[in-house]
From TrEMBL:
PANTHER family: CLASS II AMINOTRANSFERASE/8-AMINO-7-OXONONANOATE SYNTHASE (PTHR13693), LD36009P (PTHR13693:SF3). Keywords: Pyridoxal phosphate, Transferase. One of its GO terms (molecular function) is pyridoxal phosphate binding. PROSITE patterns: AA_TRANSFER_CLASS_2. This is Putative 8-amino-7-oxononanoate synthase. The keyword Transferase applies. Its cofactor is pyridoxal 5'-phosphate. Residues 43-380 form the Aminotransferase class I/classII large domain. Belongs to the class-II pyridoxal-phosphate-dependent aminotransferase family. Pfam families: Aminotran_1_2 (PF00155). InterPro entries: Aminotrans_II_pyridoxalP_BS (IPR001917), Aminotransferase_I/II_large (IPR004839), AON_synthase_class-II (IPR050087), PyrdxlP-dep_Trfase (IPR015424), PyrdxlP-dep_Trfase_major (IPR015421), PyrdxlP-dep_Trfase_small (IPR015422).
Length: 392
């Protein structure tokens, strides 16, 4: 049997392309943050993770450019061998301080951070316990590990307790949750989860890819709940609020030391270029110096949630600047995406398996740098499209 047979038989995406409503891999000609250019048309970006709008901040750009001039374009090797710069270590110290942990370790993406951290920590005799809406990189990290995987219903603390009860006492346990869930824009129920974890001797890791820079005054979801010390490991990415590329894990020194020497996605992959590290350092400086950005993105999130709900859209349980518009089936999700796109609003259509069947949605997300005029225009277009397609 030809191993490529499945490729010729794969028609799901082709069917959507033929209908002229294919929404993925769209090549943008320009990206100035809140506006992008596609085939000569300016479109308001409501589908990026550039929450604080820092990808175009002069200080962040300048830091990247200066780092290229000084260090060149690549480290051409792993952190483990030739690819560690003083700059990486300086950033690790800054990140540990930012999230209130002893040490931090930089990986080359957030995906690699989750793959390496979870798989190295969860050994044969251990159990990793995941929320059903955890990000794919957490699930894949768990799959790469040799331990057992258990899952609990999204933010369902009673179900989590039943799962914890079912695990034999001699097993190590790691609970991993998103701080801000990437599709729903809701928060992990840390105030109820942490006491339970303590009761059952489980360690807790929070992936705050979408919380860092946004929740807890910018310092993340654990900080927002006043639980920085109770969360054992805080993970995040540089590809969202930090306006770069890379990821990190932060925690107690001995845990970070262990991960540093056992995580294969760290050891066998090249480190981030100096320009990426320097941009993150500059982004953190800006976040500290301009707290109004954090306030602004949260205020925009609140306006959007209020207005879209008022219009009659189903926005689920969002409490952040990630606001899902739940549509509930594939075809209407793609058609509403296309109508918004044609009218000048960029959002992300999300269908199964990224969300459960029946929960197909338009993922919208906002930036501190969106103007009031842009937000008003986005809301008007949403209302029009919602009515035209009988969604509201
Ligand atoms: N965790 C979560 C919750 C994410 O949303 C993402 C990216 N979408 C990642 C991890 C992976 O981060 P990166 O893009 O840096 O690989």
């Amino acid at each position: 049997m030809d191993i490529f047979k499945k490729c010729t038989e794969y028609t799901d995406a082709k069917a959507v392309i033929e209908k002229g409503i294919y929404p993925y891999f769209l090549p943008l000609a320009e990206n100035e943050g809140t506006e992008v250019v596609y085939e000569g048309r300016h479109i308001i970006m409501c589908g990026s993770n550039n929450y604080l709008g820092l990808t175009t901040h002069p200080k962040v750009k300048e830091a990247g450019i200066k780092a290229i001039e000084r260090f060149g374009t690549s480290c051409t090797g792993s952190r483990f061998l030739n690819g560690t710069l003083e700059l990486h270590e300086q950033l690790e110290k800054e990140l540990a301080d930012f999230v209130g942990k002893e040490e931090a370790l930089i990986f080359s993406t957030g995906m690699q951070t989750n793959l390496g951290t979870i798989s190295s920590l969860v050994g044969r005799d251990d159990v990793v316990i995941l929320d059903k809406e955890d990000h794919a990189s957490i699930v894949d990290g768990a799959r790469l590990g040799y331990g057992k995987i258990e899952r609990f219903r999204h933010n369902d603390i009673e179900h989590l307790e039943r799962v914890l009860q079912s695990i034999p006492e001699d097993r190590g346990r790691l609970i991993v949750v998103d701080g801000v869930f990437s599709m729903g824009g809701d928060l992990a129920d840390l105030p109820n989860l942490i006491p339970l974890a303590k009761k059952y001797g489980a360690r807790v890791m929070v992936d705050d890819a979408h919380g860092m820079g946004v929740t807890g005054g910018g310092r993340g979801t654990a900080h927002g709940f006043g639980m920085d010390n109770e969360v054992d490991l805080i993970m995040s990415t540089f590809s969202k609020s930090f306006a770069s590329l890379g990821g990190f894990i932060a925690g107690d020194s001995n845990v970070i030391h262990f991960v540093k020497h056992t995580a294969r996605s760290l050891i066998f992959s090249a480190s981030i270029p100096a320009s990426n590290a320097a941009s993150v350092l500059a982004a953190i400086e800006v976040i500290k110096a301009e707290p109004e950005r954090v306030e602004r993105v949260n205020a925009i999130g609140e306006t959007i949630r209020t207005e879209l709900s008022k219009m009659g859209f189903n926005i689920g349980n969002s409490v952040t600047p990630i606001v899902p518009v739940i549509i509930g089936e594939d075809d209407l999700t793609f058609r509403s995406w296309k109508a918004l796109f044609d009218n000048g609003v960029f959002v992300n259509p999300v269908v199964s398996p990224a969300v459960a069947p029946g929960q197909q949605l338009l993922r919208t997300s906002y930036m501190a740098t969106h103007t009031d005029e842009q937000i008003e225009k986005v809301l008007q277009i949403f209302e029009q499209v919602g009515k035209d397609l009988a969604i509201i």
